[in-house]
Specification:
Strand order of the largest sheet: 1-2
Structural class: mainly alpha
Distance between the termini: 37 Å
Helix content: 55-70%
Number of domains: 1
Shape: elongated
Radius of gyration: 20 Å
Largest sheet: 2 strands, antiparallel
Length: 194
């Protein structure tokens, strides 16, 4: 029985290491964000700018120039794009290109409130703090940014996630049970900032 316990412990350690590898690191996420910003800029130039120009309200602003109709429309497009793409597809165009998806930390389907808090509240806070909270991905064990923490989500590399899911589905029931116990214990500690 002792030998079997050792094997189960090794198996669960390997699976936890594979789970660590599934979390998307900073640079692929950064590149996907740049791609998304380019896509949003192109969409704004092809839709928002011409419409506002035809309506002659492009230069209208509320109090200060930063609150122009164009800036407000572009900002709404930004948040709508990230929220709806993540909710319906679990990824934006940039994430699709780089093979990254957003998943719930609990392993359940993403809820709209999770996505809203991640993509709207989390991004507002991160952008207001000069994008510095995005750097938390470099320093957390589970590679999460402040927006991931707020939404209780992870960004994962699809290829490694698929491998991990296949391995977990073929596990011996005892090993799967031990792994689940370990994951429940380490869930909170993995999501802390160090």
């Amino acid at each position: 029985m002792e030998e079997n316990n050792g094997i189960v412990r090794k198996d669960t350690d390997y699976i936890q290491q594979l789970d660590y590898m599934t979390h998307a690191s900073f640079f692929p996420r950064f590149i996907s964000y740049i791609i998304d910003i380019i896509v949003l800029w192109a969409v704004a130039q092809l839709t928002i700018v011409p419409i506002l120009t035809v309506l002659e309200v492009r230069d209208v602003y509320f109090g200060i120039e930063a609150l122009s109709i164009e800036n407000i429309s572009t900002t709404l497009l930004y948040f709508i794009y990230f929220t709806l793409m993540t909710y319906f597809l679990k990824q934006t165009l940039g994430k699709m290109i780089l093979g990254i998806s957003v998943i719930s930390a609990k392993g359940t389907k993403l809820t709209f409130s999770q996505v809203f808090f991640r993509e709207t509240v989390g991004r507002v806070i991160s952008n207001a703090l000069l994008y510095l909270p995005y750097l938390a991905v470099l320093f957390t064990d589970s590679k999460i940014g402040l927006h991931d923490f707020i939404g209780d989500t992870y960004a994962v590399n699809n290829k490694y996630k698929e491998y991990g899911d296949v391995i977990k589905s073929e596990m011996h029931p005892d090993t799967a049970h031990k792994l689940q116990e370990k994951e429940e214990i380490s869930h909170v500690s993995d999501r802390t900032f160090q």
